[in-house]
User: Which sequence fits this backbone?
DNA sequence: CTGTTAGCGCTTTCAA
DNA sequence: TTGAAAGCGCTAACAG
């Protein structure tokens, strides 16, 4: 490995001069500069960033640590990346494994403090476990559940989104709207917030939410939704609308409906959550709750940069607004129900 | 910041002993060990990985650097991650910006050598530019084009996949199959390989590939495909099949067809490439070329680990096999054409 | 404008 | 089993 002192020797200058040429932090005379660059070129020298980072005490790198970068977090990452770059830092993504054990593992403190800041979304961890994550690096939590007060936290208006989607279908004539992927117990996760919104929409419409319409899922994949909805269609309660906990789940539902020849939106209306790009294109177009990705990203970046700048302002817990995007999977007018 | 020497002082031992306790590399007496751990706990000490890395000359981290982690590369990343973890290293993802300038930027040597190894997929760079990427770190190229011989390279059998998909539709009665996203010029990218396969299938069926059926796209998004196919439907040549250069493009096509009431597969058959998870579920199910993600991942990891182990075996250029997954968007039997 | 010194936090020798 | 010294490659601070 070629080091800076090799270059210095080759150019007949001190290491400091090489460093100055490379970083541009100090004025260096033209001829000296040229000799240094020539030496760099001829030796094929490359700065060692690890060494620079150790010296500087910063890595100029921010991590987005999420359970999966498909779907929602992929979209979020796409918006966060340019904002972080604009601040002169790099964004890297890390995937936490699904299970809580290795999730805690990947949150091992040493790794966290390798970064100037971290966006963290924890799927499997309970609130207490999160609370035990040391605060060595600036951390902004992303995620749809209660979080310890000692972290900044950005979350969506989940209940409101679910309410919007469900109310929309009720307005358009549905009377029995399934909550596909709704939590049955009283966990504090995203699914229970979304389920609460579903229930609230029913009550606002003068209907009593029927617990049998809440269909839990082992995970929020298309496959799980496909299977579960197949079961409901075969021998579950009757329904005429589906609020899917996210768009991926909605695709699984769509497949199950199509297989049985159930027409969308005529017989069953369908709405999802996340407004994935593909949801616009999948016929008949999936009505979906839009998370306002730009706002989520901008808020998260603002909080993290504030923290990285050393602010000790009180932690913020921000809930960002959502909106409903109506498409062909729900009806345009009030139907017969 | 608490350092190891703080812990050593607190525990009344030398730094070396602290290090040994923490890494477990050497035997340490029980009582000493306990005192060290107590000090670590009470001071809230965290190893500084940057320092460790500098000392070790390794970062135990591998990067997957891709233009986008949606779709194809997201799937690849999901398969690569566990394999890398199994080797005791971490996988991080970085996104290259779309444009070649900042792509070259993110490939700046210093960043590359921060990693023990790199999987690199370059979208915007030409072969010559890639050839100029310094070989400081072990690099395995991923991507569907000719690459310099000095790198290991994993690519798909693009031509074969396109041929399979097109031949399948021709067998099932299509006579005029659009190549949606096919390259028009003679660039050496993925799209021209796939277009070549499309043409070959025609010839094998005794048909003459019609260049007017090759529809170029500004980018391989659903939106671009939606627009372009809309144009073709409105005033382009007649067709009865579509080979979409990837599944994302296929979704855009599906939307354009649905808007105009064109029935799939009865009037137009449709096949894509990548076999995304969602393609299984989008009615009527998108026939797609499966890239064999597990094989791609295993091959790439094998090559990189070999390189990271210091091998100077000749560079390998591996083309991994693909297969066709038939679904409802193409016909089950020979139709009337 | 250029060079010298010191040290970021850790671990690999080597010695006790 | 424990410790002291040396140095990974770089740059801030200060001299010259």
Assistant:
């Amino acid at each position: 490995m070629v080091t800076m002192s090799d270059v210095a020797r080759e150019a007949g200058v001190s290491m400091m001069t090489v460093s100055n040429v490379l970083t541009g932090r100090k004025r260096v005379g033209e001829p000296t500069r040229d000799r240094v660059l020539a030496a760099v070129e001829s030796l094929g020298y490359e700065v060692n960033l690890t060494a620079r980072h150790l010296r500087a005490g910063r890595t100029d790198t921010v991590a987005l640590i999420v359970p999966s970068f498909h779907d929602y977090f992929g979209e979020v990452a796409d918006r966060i990346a340019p904002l972080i770059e604009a601040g002169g830092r790099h964004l890297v993504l890390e995937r936490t494994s699904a299970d809580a054990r290795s999730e805690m593992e990947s949150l091992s403190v040493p790794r966290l403090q390798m970064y100037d800041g971290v966006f963290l979304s924890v799927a499997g961890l309970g609130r207490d476990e999160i609370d035990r994550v040391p605060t060595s690096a600036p951390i902004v939590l992303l995620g749809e559940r209660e979080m310890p007060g000692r972290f900044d936290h950005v979350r969506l208006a989940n209940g409101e989104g679910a309410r919007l989607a469900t109310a929309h279908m009720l307005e358009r004539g549905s009377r029995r709207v399934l909550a596909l992927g709704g939590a049955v117990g009283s966990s504090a996760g995203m699914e229970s917030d979304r389920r609460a919104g579903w229930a609230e929409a029913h009550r606002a419409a003068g209907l009593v939410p029927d617990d049998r319409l809440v269909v839990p899922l082992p995970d929020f994949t298309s496959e799980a939704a496909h299977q579960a909805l197949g079961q409901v269609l075969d021998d579950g309660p009757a329904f005429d609308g589906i609020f899917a906990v996210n768009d991926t789940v909605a695709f699984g539902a769509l497949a199950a409906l199509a297989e049985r020849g159930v027409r969308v939106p005529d017989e069953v209306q369908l709405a999802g959550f996340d407004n994935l790009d593909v949801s616009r294109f999948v016929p008949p177009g999936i009505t979906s709750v839009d998370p306002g990705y730009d706002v989520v990203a901008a808020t998260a970046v603002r909080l993290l940069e504030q923290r990285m700048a050393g602010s000790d302002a009180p932690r913020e817990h921000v809930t960002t607004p959502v909106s409903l995007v109506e498409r062909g999977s729900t009806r345009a007018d009030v139907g017969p129900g």
Summary: Chain A has three domains: 4-47, 61-157+292-322, 158-290. Residues 13-17, 20, 26-29, 32, 51, 53-57 of chain A lie near DNA strand C (CB under 10 Å from a C1').
